[in-house]
Amino acid sequence: MGLDVVWAERWVRRTAEVVAEAKDELTELDRQIGDGDHGENLHRGFQAVVAKLDEPDAAERTEVGDVLKLVATTLMSKVGGASGPLYGTAFLRAAKRSARPEVDTSGVVVLLEAALEGVTSRGRAEPGEKTMVDALTPAVEAATAAAAAGQDPVEVLAAAADAAEAGARATVPMVATKGRASYLGERSAGHEDPGARSTAIVLGAARDAALAGPDR
């Protein structure tokens, strides 16, 4: 059983919920090493995405990619700073690779790989630079390993979410060499990267949405 449009929409709604819950945490993390708007920007963006989902053209979304494209275009238009372009590009690349009614195990891996490619191409970031790439890269690696082990799409997502969580925590001792945090140099060490934290939150929401499906 693959993950379909219902799952994709549930993912978006769950993301909006957990981002709202984590808004202050993300803002504080960003205040420590950035410009302090990450939580509010993402909150505003995903609230706008949910509003789009609730518009009467829902029947036109028949593929997973349709939902992810809606996320991408809305975030790009509603979210300022670096978050909008980075998350927008991630979701847009993922949308292009999931233009089907449902995604299976390999489809989940491809979706995550595409998101990572989008972030790295847009942000020019690499692992170890204290960015969202440090959560997305281990997520892709864990998903790939889980798929190779024969796990189902939900288990693959769960592995990815767990790895993203660990990746976000691993940014705490890193010295930022990319983005606004890099201006702090050594002083950026000791703080979790807000982009990596929000990435873990988004992937955790994807897992939660899959676990809430009718077969679970």
Structure notes:
With 216 residues, this protein is mostly helical. The chain has 8 helices and 2 strands. Helix 4 packs antiparallel against helix 5. It is globular. The N and C termini lie close together (11 Å). The model has no long low-confidence stretch (mean pLDDT 91).
Nutshell version of this structure?
By secondary structure, this protein is mostly helical.
List keywords for this structure.
two-stranded antiparallel sheet, 8 helices, mainly alpha, single chain, 67% helix, globular, 216 residues
Q: What's the alpha carbon Rg, rounded to whole Å?
A: 16 Å
Indicate the low-confidence ranges by residue numbers. Answer: none
User: Got a strand count?
Assistant: 2
Q: Give the CA-CA distance, first to last residue.
A: 11 Å
